[in-house]
Write a structure and sequence with these properties.
- The protein is mainly alpha-helical and 370 residues long.
- It has 13 helices and two strands; from the N terminus they run αααααααααααββαα.
- A two-stranded antiparallel ribbon has the order 1-2.
- The two termini are 20 Å apart.
Length: 370
């Protein structure tokens, strides 16, 4: 079995993405968050809306190097590996939703089935099967067909307002397949931004990462490859923006224009990192993010469990009962920096704490792979 080659710039990109994920997921208060650190309300794309597609892109880019061990052949061992990895990640997502495993909290009639890890599991598993069976050119053709099919699905199936929160076909399909009680309700109505149907388009985000990974894997000249990556990235951004005029860029629907726009940005970011790290050899400046790039799925699980735990713990504050989360924010970070900057500082404190945990694991050579 061949040992996978590692590209340092991909590891650093993963670390930067994880650090940004912690910042956007852990403000001191959702009432006090700077605009770039919020999701777009519906159509549009903010810095925060780049985090999830960046991670899926990196999954695809890493896949190209990881699958060298299988000699790009769909063997029985390959399928076992992909199945168990997809299953374990999906199960981890279910367990986060079920946590803290207290009997009175287990309301299965309203249990949300899908989520971030569940989407990662499905997108990874399906993309893995595609790339092990088809060469790069065919993967590009399949990706294009999926995006066109997804556009047609939303356009034809959504009625007079196909890209609205209420009428989009994704919502209706997910209600039919999963039941509205098992969907996310944070938008005010049952609609899951990580639902089953919109996962179709997210597969392409992984495949774009794989295509870029293939460019990096086969190149003999990083400088020349960076130019090709830049052209590829700029082309996707341009097509995404133009397509977005009729098929809006929308994270919650994971529209085809959003896939191309965010995939293009991810490609450009990786091209820049490749130039700085792989060509200029400035690795030492990014070592902090290398630590963040290790145990990434484990960190996502840990951060989710931590947040749910301190939300359950209650403290008395000025006669009011507050969660541990709010108590820390109000007693430490507001006095230190005010409401808005205190909320941001609260998020950065989580970045530091989680980095220290990952650094300890890194020093001990403990790598928890799901």
């Amino acid at each position: 079995m061949s040992k996978p080659r590692r590209i340092y710039s991909i590891d650093i990109f993963r670390g930067i993405t994880i650090a940004l994920m912690i910042i956007v997921n852990n403000p001191g208060s959702w009432a006090f968050v700077y605009a770039p650190l919020r999701h777009a309300k519906w159509h549009g794309c903010t810095l925060t809306d780049l985090v999830f597609p960046f991670f899926l892109f990196i999954v695809g880019a890493s896949m190209r190097f990881a699958f060298v061990r299988w000699h790009s052949f769909p063997s029985k061992d390959f399928y076992k590996h992909v199945f168990w990895r997809s299953f374990s990640i999906f199960l981890a997502g279910i367990l986060i939703h079920a946590y803290p495993f207290i009997q009175q909290d287990w309301d299965w009639s309203n249990f949300r089935i899908m989520g971030v890890l569940q989407r990662i599991a499905l997108a990874y598993g399906i993309a893995a099967v595609i790339v092990i069976h088809f060469k790069v050119r065919k993967v590009l053709i399949i990706s294009t067909r999926i995006l066109l099919f997804y556009w047609a699905l939303l356009w034809i199936g959504g009625g007079n307002n196909p890209y609205s929160l209420e009428d989009n076909v994704i919502r209706h399909f997910d209600i039919f397949l999963l039941g509205e009680k098992h969907l996310y309700k944070g938008t005010g109505i049952p609609f899951d931004p990580e639902g089953l149907i919109s996962t179709i388009a997210s597969i392409v985000t992984v495949l774009i990462g794989y295509l870029v990974g293939a460019m990096m894997h086969t190149t003999k000249n990083f400088s020349d490859n960076i130019k090709r990556m830049s052209v590829f990235g700029l082309s996707m951004i341009t097509i995404g923006l133009i397509w977005g005029l009729i098929f809006p860029i929308n994270k919650q629907l994971w529209t085809s224009s959003y896939v191309l726009f965010t995939g293009g940005i991810a490609t450009l970011v990786l091209a820049i990192l490749s130039w700085v790290i792989d060509v200029k050899n400035l690795k030492s400046y990014f070592w902090v993010f290398k630590v963040f790039g290790t145990n990434s799925i484990f960190l996502f699980i840990l951060s989710g469990l931590w947040t749910k735990t301190i939300l359950k713990i209650k403290f008395n504050f000025d006669g009011n009962l507050l969660s541990g989360y709010s108590y820390l924010y109000k007693t430490i970070f507001i006095p230190m920096a005010g409401e808005m900057n205190g909320s941001l500082l609260f998020a950065f404190s989580h970045v530091i704490i989680f980095w220290l945990i990952l650094y300890w694991l890194y020093r001990k050579k403990i790598f928890i792979n799901l």
